[in-house]
């Protein structure tokens, strides 16, 4: 088996693992009740890494236009490197265990999170769980 095939298999296994984790999180973590007002502390905190291919895929597929979306009005995106110390303002937030992790914060408290990035369609669907209907 050549090195290209091994890399491809590794990528596919990790992609499948991340998709499974993300789908599992749909059933494990559900957001709290949504308020109609948007506070200063409302945000989507993206835990990212420059060595993460799924973070790059998110940036290419969603991140590039996210700030122009309706959802960005409710949860502006803030990016934080996985390997950097979390600022004190996030001391009440449970640390991420993988990248990317999208943590939804309203009024300084975590509403829920999306762990992994299995593609834009599932990401937008999960994001809709946190935004007003």
Topology of helices and strands:
Blueprint: H1 3-28, E1 43-48, H2 53-66, H3 71-74, E2 77-81, E3 101-106, E4 109-115, H4 120-128
User: What is the CATH architecture annotation?
Assistant: 3-Layer(aba) Sandwich
Mean pLDDT: 80
CATH homologous superfamily assignment: Glutaredoxin
The largest sheet is:
4 strands, mixed
Query: What spatial order of strands do you see in the largest sheet?
Result: 2-1-3-4
User: Radius of gyration from the CA trace?
Assistant: 15 Å
Beta strands, count? 4
Highest CATH level, the class: Alpha Beta
Helix/strand class: alpha+beta
Low-confidence stretches: 22-40
Apparent shape: globular
Report helical residue fraction. 25-40%
Order of helices and strands: HEHHEEEH
Descriptive key words:
single chain, 133 residues, alpha+beta, Glutaredoxin, four-stranded mixed sheet, 40% helix
Describe what you observe in this structure.
- This protein has 133 residues and is α+β, with helices and mostly antiparallel strands.
- It has a single domain (3-128), classed as 3-Layer(aba) Sandwich (Glutaredoxin), CATH 3.40.30.10.
- It contains 4 helices and 4 strands; from the N terminus they run H-E-H-H-E-E-E-H.
- It has helices spanning 3-28, 53-66, 71-74, 120-128, and strands at residues 43-48, 77-81, 101-106, 109-115.
- The chain has a 4-stranded mixed β-sheet.
- Strand 3 (101-106) and strand 4 form a beta hairpin.
- It is globular, with a radius of gyration of 15 Å.
